[in-house]
Structures are given as structure tokens and as C-alpha cells.
Amino acid sequence: MAGNQKAKAKMEQAKGKTKATVGRAVGNEQMAAEGQMEKSKGDARQAKEKTKDVFKH
């Protein structure tokens, strides 16, 4: 399960980064903000999984 969550975090980070970049490129601030929010969500999920790994070992 942890591997699945890590993959989901990476996917959210990549999707968010892409969306933010495209939003900035086309001048759509709302899309850029949504992309940054998705990336941050992925960052938070990844941090949570890393914390879980620390306590497992």
C-alpha cells in the first residue's frame, strides 16, 4: 500500500507541476494556482509516506 501512495504522490506532483507551467504559459492564473495546489498536495503526501517509512524501520 505504501508503494501505491508514493506513486500517487509522484503522479500528483508531476500533474500539478505541468498544470502550473501550462497555466503560466497561457496566462491563466487560476490554472496555475490549481496546478501549484495539486503539486503541494503531492508534496504533502510524499512527506507523510517518508515519515511513515522512518517509523517503520
State the share of residues found in helices, binned by percent.
Answer: over 70%
List segments where confidence is low: pLDDT < 50 over at least 5 consecutive residues. none
List how many beta strands DSSP finds.
0
Main sheet summary:
none
One letter per element, helices H and strands E, the order comes to HH
Overall shape: it is elongated
| Coarse structural class | mainly alpha
Summarize the structure.
The chain is 93% helix and 0% strand. By secondary structure, it is mostly helical.
Can you describe what's shown?
This protein is mostly helical and 57 residues long. 93% of the residues lie in helices and 0% in strands. It is built from 2 helices and no strands. The protein has helices spanning 2-26, 29-56. Helix 1 (2-26) runs antiparallel to helix 2.
Layout: helices, strands, pairs:
Elements lengths: L1 H25 L2 H28 L1
Helix pairs in contact: 1-2
Notable traits:
single chain; 57 residues; mainly alpha; 0% strand; elongated
